[in-house]
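Agenda item 2: dioxothiomolybdenum(VI) ion complex prediction
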Amino acid sequence: MNRAAPTPLDNMGRPEPRLDGRAKVTGEARYGSDFGVNDPAYAFLVTSVIAKGRINSIDARAAKGVPGVLEVFTYENTRGLQKVPFSTGGGGATQSMQDMGPEIFHDGQIVGMVVADTYEAAQEAASLVKVEYQAEKPSATFGSAGVTEEDASKASERAKELPQAGDADAAIAAAAVKIEAEYGTPTEHHNPIELFTTTVEWRGDELTIYEPSQFVYGQKASIAKKLGISDDKVRIVSPYVGGAFGSKAQFSPRTGFVAYAAKVLNRPVKLVATRDQGFTIQTYRAETRHKIRFGADLDGTIKGFSHEGFEITSRPDPYTVAGVEDSARVYNYGTVKTHVSLVHADRGTPGFMRSPPVVPYIYALESAMDELAVKLEMDPVELRRKNDSMTDTTGKEWSSRSLMTCYEQAGEKFGWSKREAKPGSMSDGDWLVGWGCATAIYPTHVGASAVRVRLEADGRVRVQTAAHDLGTGAYTVIGQMAAEQLGVPLSHVQVELGDSRFPPAPVAGGSNTTASTCNAVMKACEAILAKLAPPNAMTGSNTGTGRNLEAGFKRLGVGAIEEYAEYLPTGAKPEAMAQLYHGKPFLSGGSRGKKLMYALGAEFVEVRVHKLTREIRVPRIVGAFAAGRIMNTRTARSQLMGGMIWGISSALHEATEIDKRNARYVNDNLADYLIPVNADIRDLDVILVPERDKFVNPAGIKGLGELGNVGTAAAVANAVYNATGIRVRQLPIRLENLMA
Ligand code: MOS
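Presented output:
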């Protein structure tokens, strides 16, 4: 790994250690449920044991008899709650199924909540709540009787206009070489280590909620709607988040129940949902299916591409990731046809999970690209080079695109030129060796964002914004931007995030935080510097450092300058900022603007498959990534490494198993929900490829939090094929799939 401090010429920021590192390792950092509220009562959820039907009756007498129980909440005494509209753009509700019944839409739906003086009493009482159901036979997933299919473009605004160009059917039919294949990805759950917690305290009509959140302004607006109060009476506090990955981005029904209970009982209430409850009271990544068709010339020029996606969702909500929007952009295919179908089942509504929408769709695309390369007897990197273009099939231009540079740098480091294309031709003792590669891509999102920056005369700086550091490094990069702009050391900068009392930032999703907030910080700092050193008032550089700073403060006769700044990305309507204040984020980028804005990467993987046991290992992975300006090479590297590890997880480990008879998750715990451990991960190499792109935003930042795990699963699958000659088209790949 290159640990040398990069020069500014590389467009790479310094590898500063995390500003929040000390607080986190010493336990000083307070997460949602760590906040002390005065004399809290404790809540415990009761969840449905059926997936479809109705509650006939609830008998809470035994539960209420447990000493210390204050109240048992059910659908019968929570009717006063309003509905928060379901929305998939961030800031809405995770699902429209927000009541405790009587109708049951999915297994594990919240049907009751016991509140007691102690956690133990609430837990015991919850086990004594008797719910009588009238159960119906549920439909679990693809292929289950009773599921209904719907055209996503008719059901969801998100999928309204999917990319189409030319006559792909005809182009594929006429092509010399054709590929047609189907792929599948399983249900996955985020499983953040920090559980889903909610702590609520009312002071008169003022409500404070401590809850891990990716979007405190969204939470604030939603809970206000839920309770029928004004959002200026609500404060949401979430300075640290112990993992989220999309699961804490939207309003979930539990928050409404806890806030309501605290009001009714006139006492702070704390809920820490259990690990297994987290599998059903929050969102998840739904299973997907893909039909991909390619037509190409003998020289590898792709003439037509068709991608049909199928996604599971709940009965009422048209949740879709519709990743054809992005898979259709990766190469210039000559012609493109895309379609997405929603398949409604008796399940909770899915939601964002790390690197939506691309993860399942790019797995399918990049697996099919490998199959096409095999059929063409062409090197898979060359196939990608052949179809690399600064314009996509619909004629849209890229703002910048360093894909082939990523392939060159990662391939060189990996030693790709020594690869044997014929499956099974590389081995080491009892192990078959296989090499594979795939493209990583993630839309560059930039959001409307506001910050407050305060510079003291002694050079200390404070930055406040309601953005979130989900473990990504946001505290640090926001601080770095302020330090750089104002010319002060990073140690002089204090960054405060995750409180709805600060100026609003977008939902911490879609990898937009660094780009959005850093641009706002730049604006605020520019305003401060303009005050300190107005043009013509001083000679020398306008850096705010040393004598300039001192002289400026002296001239102004103040001890501090505080500036509030708003950043609106290109394409934002003027009302975007006002809407953000009321919980509606505006995000631009990806394929939505005048040019295609994406971060890209190339990943190379070595797998080893044991000749007899078929055990699969991933000893080596090299990824090269280009994402515009890199604010901090250390946190960037860490994000990309984490992403690739998650990619290995998707490829070989992760799946939430569904009992199809009951539409119920089976492995709803961290013992049975497989993820890689240290022993599963060996050499991980991250190359940061310099890239300049001022089109995406003035700071030139693309964001990379979700880039690393895109493409990894395909690269692993392609390497498994190279090792064994067996093409597995359903994730995760398990050794039983390789028992030829
Ligand atoms: Mo991230 S899954 O876009 O919150």
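Discussion summary: The first strand starts at residue 41 and ends at 47.
Owner for follow-up: CH.
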